[in-house]
Batch of 2 targets.
Target 1
Amino acid sequence: MLRWSALEGSYQTLLRLASVVALLTTGNTLSVSSFPSLSSSPPTSVFSSSQGNSLRSTTPVWLPEHVLVYPAMYKYKPVMYSHRDDLTAAGNTVSTGDKDGGGGGEEGGKEEIDVKNTTQPLNKNFRLPASLRPTHYIVRVQPYINGNYSVRGSVQIDIEVLQSTSNITLHVSTMDIHVQDIQLEAAEGDEEGASIPRFTHFVDNLDVEVFTAHLDGELEAGRRVRYTVPYEGTLEHYMGGFYGLHYTDVDGTERYMVSTLNQPVNARIAFPCFDEPQLKATFELHVARQVNMTAVSNMPLLTTTPIEDQEGWVWDSFQTTPPMSTYLLMLVVMSLPHINITAHRQDLPIRIWARQEVLDRMSFMHQVVPGVLDFMETYTNISYSLSKLDIIVVPSQEGIAFEGWGAILMYDERFIQHDPLENDEVNLGKVAWVQAHELAHQWFGNLVTPRWWGDVWLSEGITTYMSNLAMQKMAIVSQSVAAEASFTLHELFHEDSQITAVPVFNQQLDVFKPDTYFNVFSYFKCSLLLHMMAHVLSHHAFRKGMVSFLHEHQYGSVGQDDLSRHLTKAAHETHTLPQDLTVKTILDTWTHQAGYPLVTVTRSPAGTSATAFQEKYLWSQNSSLLSDHYSTWWVPLTHTSQASPDFNDTLVKVWLKGTETQTSVHNLPTRDHWVVFNLQQTGYYRVNYDDNNWNLLIQQLLTDHQLIHVNNRVQMIDDILNLASSGKVSYNTALSLVEYIKKENETLPWRVFQRNMEHMKKMLQSTPAYEGFKKYMWSLLVPLWNLVGLENKLEVQTIQQEHSEAVKWACHHNLPSCVYLAASLYAQWMLTPENIKVVPRDLWGTVYCTAIAHGGEAEWDFAWQQYFLSNDIHHKEQLLAALSCSRDTWEENGYLDLALTSEIKQRTQGAFQVFYSVASNPGGKPLAWNFLTSRWSALANFSFIYSVRYSDSGAAVEQLVVAAAETLTSQQDMDKLRVFRDNHRDNPRVVAASEVALDIVARNVAWMERNYDVICEWLQARGFNIGLR
């Protein structure tokens, strides 16, 4: 699964999805209304005549207008992936009225069975008892998507008894269980003639969402029983279980559909089940639907039969699935059209379902889907396991995609569309990568599944790695898109150097907070760790181990040690890993602790040897935060030298062991020749050097930078600027190294350089040093600007991506020729508002912001008007950000007011985007802070509404305070923050947010005290004059 909000930081640049240039923030432009009115009474129960001996009620019980059992769960929460964002118990309604039916094994019983609702202290690590294992489910469900959003269902579970037990416990959440109709009987393969215990009572544990049937006798180990539970539920209005949504077709027709999102712990909302990933079983799904709709599930349709006495309704029965986890069961009931894709083999039908206007922009899928499937089959030596594949594009913009086995769901239309006439290759790379990721899941995640959510990286990290490989092997996109994988590393390094970073492997996770384990680390850090291991073991041994892992555990579940065992065996057989060393020994040091090492290489006086010392790298050097500062890893050291440069030899030269903080490296050249460690940055660590080696590298870059591999040039830029920012290296050294950038023609080094310099810009923008800094940046950008060749040119509609990046950087630093270009383009657009293509799509944000910053009221008013006229979500986002670029304090203050009173606040994070954008501008810092303090009541109220609607409570409050603090740099700013915190002592969330903000400002103050004078001296020494502080 891909979850975009799980991959973003609060108002920071989103981590790229490997080959994806930029992920859009989670959207919410498709509104989901309140519950539809009851258009007609539900038809007579279709569950009264069931198979077997199970007896069910013949009189359905319907809630009037389907009154909500648990209202807080039914709010529309597009960023919510679990239904448990708070600690309030999720309740079930248990029906125990006078009904026909048996209570447990004998027909005709009508005795009253006691039902107890209970709560206990929330056990976030609760696991089902190990005594039972489901082997087969028969799920019957009838969703009234065009009626009152109710669901009537029944689940029949064949269970194998592994250990003697007197109870049956499974997961149930927010549904009406008909206790008197629950049945327990012998299943096929059970002991002939063995008695079936009867139910004594039921316990509904609300906190851990389990429903337990207690028996009057033991079920002995080896028994096989069938457990049938009828239930009623509601199609949720948020993304959990079987849920409902409505959308409007291009012709204005309003339509409804049923969709599914069961990962990670939402299958229990859809039907009673053993909702843990390792408890795999086969599934037989029967769906009642109206004849004017289509049902799609994991497997091909088997039969369709009319429902007696229910005109216009039919039963769709699907083929039985292979063994799989509950979260993979898929159901979609819809009225969407589809197209057929020609597969890489003739026996595999592939269909894509979407609104027609979306289908018209999917020609690329004819190449991508068969290509990825072919790659995965070739790499793994395992054919795609099912007999069909459906890809359903849900008409929404939720920022999620899910890898349903045989039925992939795309919950965001933006990430499935590509028009070669309107979109560039970057967009193609983005949409192709998303498809590659979900298709790779058909092997890693579906065929082989993590045993528990603490090992979710075995699904998400591996598929991220595999989708990167697929993109490289297929000639879908150019190298400029493939380079994004490298940029991802540097974005991730920043996240993983924060004190808030978490380990990849976490057995103490809270399953009800999936964002804590579906995060940037389980996706991207693990992908990069696998990339590192492939170089450590060799690509041949790595693939051999991965294939063996997949073959042995197909249709099963695994833990990290299983993967380590297979990789070790392959590496030992190919002699790429010492026999006394295992992959588990190495990998555990990277997955069981947060962060990564900084390796400092200090060469001997002669230079022919060196000491490599490791320590945990933290961006903040606050000593109070360094409790685990002495963590160690198994670090694969690779290196080359000026004497014989070979950047392609990425096999390990020396191991810096996880049991030691330092090791010796020998056979280096003399001290007048540089050395470079971590070749092509295949290792997940930063490198620092002694001053002499840094100086040698600086001279090499200034003389002939191309002698050093581009990946290592990128590494040096990112490492040294981060090390300078955190006080490990002087800015004298760092700024001297990056001076070579004016000769750099590759895009990636420039991008990493610009991202790092943005922090310095924010720190200096309100100081006298800023003018000198700006002119210094101009001196670096002018050669690149001249290379692009856009001086005074307005015909830029065909601008290339790398050139658009140069324009963005030049205008961002107010290079006069770029400001002129942006103002001219914007003026042209103002003359012909209907001709939006006057400004290239890639330059929307740059041109709009620059023109408004250097323009007046007319430019601002025009952008404000266009914001409301535009129907393009990306365009609206660019306009929204650009409106905050004005240098007019009155305009900006009014803009902040408008953000809380206009349509902006109804859009995704719109008001917060405005606030953050204003706070980030040079003159906006005091404005944003004053606005925050003077309008706190309105902001807090709005953030509460936002929190309820979009995420866990209180997160928005923290975002506001932190956003206001990110560019504060003085002790006076800290004093104001302390006063603000003390004035809100009655609100723990505000206090907590204030503490976070105080830490940020403290880091900024320390940065200024440590670096301001050094930077000023360096700038002045090179002729970039600054004013007095």
Target 2
Amino acid sequence: MSSPPTRDAKGVTPASLMLDYIPSSQRLDFLKSSIDSLQPENPSNVDFVASLVQHSGHPTAGCAVSISLQHVDMGKALLTRASQYISQARSISDTSQLEGGALQFYLQFSKLTASHLSTSSHEIQRLLFQACLALLSSTRPRVSCSARDVVFELLASRNGSTTTDVIQPSRETTWQRVQTLLASQAKHHTLIGYSLWLRWILSDPGEHWKQIATDDYWQLIFQGLRRGDTERRKLCLNILRLSLGIDTAAVPKDLQQQYERYITVFETIVLGRYINQIQECESDLNQLAASSDLHSQWLFTLLACAMDSVMQDSTRKFIGNWVMRSVLSLTPEMLEFFRDSILPWATQGHLFVSSLKTAHGRLQCLHGELLAGYIQSLRRESERSLVVDVVADTIIQRRHSMFAYCTVYLLEGLGDSLDESHASRLSELPKLPEVAQDYIQLKIPQTTQVNVTKTNLSQRDLQDDSVFHRIRLLCKQKAGMGDLEAVWEDMESIEFPKRLLMLMTDLISHPSIIRSALLSPMSTAYLQEKVHTLQQLAGTKMYLFAPLVTAVRTAVVGNPSAVGVMGLEDFLVGIAEHPPEPTVEFMLEEATAHLTPHSYEHYFGDRPSLGFAAYLDLVSRLRDHQDLVQAIMNRVFEPWRAQKGPVPSVSPWKNKLQLQVLLLCLEQYDAASEAEVHKLLEDLFHVLALEPLPSLRYLLEWITVRLIMRYDLAESLIARLKTKDHHSNPKHLASLMKIGAILACTPDSGEDFAMQLATTFVPLAASSKVVVRHEAQWQVPVLMDHARNQGWVSIAENTVLAALDDYIRSLERFHDPPLERLHGRFDPVTDHTLTNLAEGKWFELDQMEAPLTSHEDFSTLYSKHDVSEAPASCVPLGPKIERSTPQLEAAPNATKAKAAVSLLTPEHSTALQTKGTAYLARTLSPVSPTRPQNLIVVASLVDNPHNLGGLSRVSEIFGASTLTLQNQNVVSNKDFASVSVSSHLHFPIVQLSSSGIPEYLRERKREGFVVVGIEQTDRSVLLGSEESVLPEKCVLVVGSEREGIPATVLVECDVLVEIPQRGVTRSLNVQTAVAVVLFEYERQFGKRR
């Protein structure tokens, strides 16, 4: 092989040395004159010209094209020299031995000049094509990529008549090279291979009939689709589309349409990955699955790609659920897909946990039941035990890492198809939780079970039995504190087994133990400590809650002295502040219990809802303990009245149970003075003015109405309703109107009060605030109906009120009230019941918490634990609530807006997306929220609901303390809601008109805030630069979509920032821009916050 021009030890050639003495601006002219003076027939001249071009300092492209067009003979000579050099280079296995610069130059030169040569250079082109085709497999990516460029350039020129015949003899060589490249382990080789394949088809589709007829051709497409990255998959889909279109006459139109559908679905699901578009593909997937023309391997390649672990969880969930709902033929491809894709995905623990939902009166694991049903359908279709083998092998192989309850549902799917060989292997499973273990023992034939007798029980089991019998014996006789201490220590040493804990509740509430605790302060303290320990344990062991509360209730109502020795104040307040919630493990145990022959009660005793019934009933019977009632009331109510506005819609420490307890306490508490009553009423008005959540407002209104009725304070409402300020708190004013109308309709109310109230409603019905106006219009007919029934002529025959009443009744909306209006109705006499308090329709006002107990639980409680001789409840039980529509049922731990998660159903495929309130599923802290108060976002200049929803979302995510909007009602707009994803419920949103922004900013400045505007002006600093240090106490002003920040607001801005740009588009969308700035704020101050 001839070598390039001689170089010395420092890599200097004669050409490069000569060029050093020529200014760079004159080198191109020097090249042209040199080429003119040199004869291309002399190989040394050609090498010298190549060296000159290579080291001239000019772009190789410009020189090469100039030579090939203006000096055709020299161009041909150089190309000939290039083809020779490249051909000789391909024979060297390690191209790194070559002088890299020369090879790269000749490859680049060939790429740019090959298509400019005349037909006399066919042989050179053929030589180049074959040489570069070989170099595609070079271990040096730069060489193989340069060779690829030459090959692609030559293939692209095949549409002309000059090269078609030249490259045609390389057909077999090209296909072999494609196969070689695709078999390589190097990623750049496989990418070049698929690129070459596609370019080859595009250059002359007619060549491919021979290759298309082979299985290898299609298997390589399968391989690229299944294992490739996005780019390779796109290449394979194009290859597939072009391969089917080579001869349209030979491929039926229906088949072409099916494959075109397949390609589109593949692009949408695997490459596009937008879940809303993927969901729209369900009908296409059904057609592909039902098609007899489409080979099943194509479908399962698509499904396997969609189920790959790198895909988004939402995509995998949609496809996985579609597969389990569909009836797909059990082909070998299907069985492989089931083993390698479906089972690894479907056995993930989070799928079982996230699909727990109460339906039809019991807790269900929807994913587990769907998986079990799917396996049953596969098993019925399988003639042999193929599916059983696959599932059993999966359980055995992953027995130490598989989610415990997954094993239960897998075995449920297998049904009775386990034979002795399967059962023998499955008997080696590690110990599972109680319900799961019982299920496994029932499923596996008894011949393989180990016969458990007293001789092989563990020491712990024997001690458990011993303590259990001792506690039972103590509960039947007179026990003392010493006995309690002894069995408690034994129980603690074996880590509080379930049945011992449940039995211990009977012992600590035993009359003899209560009497013993009264004998000394030390005994009292010991008993209180144990009650507190059991209460803490009930927080994680939900089965303990009902027996503990019912035991305490029985002890207290049976012996009033137990109030002090059991620490009842801390006990009741602790439950109100932190209602126990079931753990995930407990919920899964409950969900799987129905698969066994036993009931929930067999495993866990009374349900927690019975415990909450006992709790509310106990609180309602404390009238004889005024000090205790007052203490509970003050401790529960204190965080509520200590709030300062604005408050978030959802606070981690708030719950309905606290207000339920407050209501029961106020019903029993006898205030010491009139001043104390007025203070309580003022505190209730204060809390009502701040609270945004409808269900909590309902309870506060209930409490307020009952307090006003009890102490005859209705007249105090009139002065509040005569206010001219309808803007500062319209929701509060609406609540006062509702309370007034409720009071006016009570039996003890008089005509004078009703007339005063009606008079105040007239101007309120014309208020500029929609909330105020609508509430007045709803309450006027209520008041008028009551006046007519009572015969109050001054109201019923008042022409102004009658005209207003007639107008309101003529409105279409009046005869079709919204559900919240129906659910929010309250009669302080007939609705004042424990049943309504526990599970009334008012729960459906926002469905942020599910009822904790029910009328049925109270009835069960009274039948099991009769306390007829105890003080009566301060609130009657009341009748069972009849519901015309099914109530939304939530999982037992849905006390903080845990939305029920549903799997896809054929009728409702859009139910897969479950982001609505999933953020509340985390464990919530009982302390006050710690959202920083140093960051305010002013968005009152923005008017597009879609953009406002996005601003709400990013502001809440990055921890803004407040967001201002021009109109708060925009939060009910569907465009706002679709983007905000409930973010507006988690931090304050304040109404601020655009005209009021300057004054608002000046007020914030006086509080120490610095105003930062997002705007492009001469004084703007680039975000992220050294100059753009954002203030920690920051008011961020966002401009309108069109005009940006107006001059009147700009002058109030202390700092203006703009976002660095690289493109030519002038601006970002407003929510995107704010997100960037908020991220920068978080970066600067996140650790301090």
